[in-house]
């Protein structure tokens, strides 16, 4: 990955990126450069109406200097714009095999420095583990200099740790499901625990049975690889200000089980462990940033397969809190895994409880691929996360949990069923199901089914695994 530095007069770079404002004007730094290059930049910017209209970025030469005119997309907030402009500048640099680049823009505060850093670094991600030929031209950017009058290293460090977390999630989600299963995920957690001095406990079948985690265990019974509940925690050296527990859906492959999914898009179901990957990434990052809060991750790692031990539609299981669930659809497995995860999480007495999951196709229908759904029992807490989403460029939007809809998941023979068979408000039904396992004043459920995986590039939210959610949660943790 490229290194981020502040630009100094001694730094030699191969190109300069000018962030151009949407109206066609240049920023202050851009004007300085423009004067140096005798108006060449503004001339090109004016002439290139196409560029202005499409807000595309391009490379131009002036007196032997390579200058990248980077689009400054008009978005919801300045930090989102800067992150995306820096991203597009680095993308162009990669195309032209530029190694050292200066971003000529004077950020006004630490958040802007961080956003430029994140956008730049996120552009350098690629997943090439299984490419025999690693000649990935266009990924050659090594050093990125940011021009800034504000030379504090904290935002650069944050940009690095936040993007490392995003990329950690991307790697785990992109890994193929024959290699990334509950067992290998626990190995990844063990490595992270050693590297980041985390407390780690891995619960296997026998212990989970003893604890009564039957809903969770039932999901993995159709797979040759047994379930694991991975408990990884970071604790600051000074007594922690507060304790946040993150419960992540870690379905390493979701075939649907006996309620088998159709082949259309089933290969994307390796992404069904994004929530677990995010939880682990956040604990790691909290340790790297030495945050003053305790962060616990619970990874509910399992594989939903249709072998003979698998859940049958019609089965009834008893969850850890004693409630019984009729399994009407084996493809609604995430909520079974999370139910026990949430019950166990509450025994750790956290101040904030968050679960994060690729839970429903209905979330994609409701909010698409750039906005995740947030549900919960505490409006102020939901709002805190929505704000963190805005700042990180990972947008969340609240959905209500109306009590009347609880009727939908009533079962004739058990306390509830895991699927109503009625498609209306599918994400809310998922949230209501989970709420049956929550007896805690501050709980939020994040459904990231759409944003976790893309089939196209939306700027920093790249094709395939996006890592969406990690930077939002880190922004929240960092604000406590
Ligand atoms: N993992 C899926 C949800 C999903 C869908 C994630 C699309 C990412 C993209 C989940 O386990 C699932 O299959 N949910 C069912 C629930 C239904 C049976 C109540 C769904 O959404 O169809
Ligand atoms: Zn499913
Ligand atoms: Zn699933």
Give a written overview of the molecule.
This protein is of the alpha/beta class and 480 residues long. It folds into 2 domains: 3-149, Leucine Aminopeptidase, subunit E, domain 1; 175-479, Aminopeptidase (3-Layer(aba) Sandwich). The protein contains 15 helices and 19 strands. It has helices at residues 28-36, 40-47, 49-54, 78-95, 110-122, 153-174, 182-195, 205-211, 214-220, 274-288, 334-347, 361-367, 379-392, 426-435, 470-479, and strands spanning 3-6, 15-20, 58-62, 65-71, 100-104, 143-146, 199-203, 228-234, 243-254, 294-304, 316-318, 324-326, 352-357, 371-376, 395-398, 416-417, 443-447, 453-454, 464-465. The strands form 4 sheets. Strands 7-8-10-9-13-17-14-15 form an 8-stranded mixed β-sheet, sandwiched between helices. The protein has a 6-stranded mixed β-sheet with strand order 1-6-5-2-4-3, sandwiched between helices. The protein starts with a strand and ends with a helix. The mean pLDDT is 93. Residues 251, 254, 272, 333-334 line the site of one zinc ion.
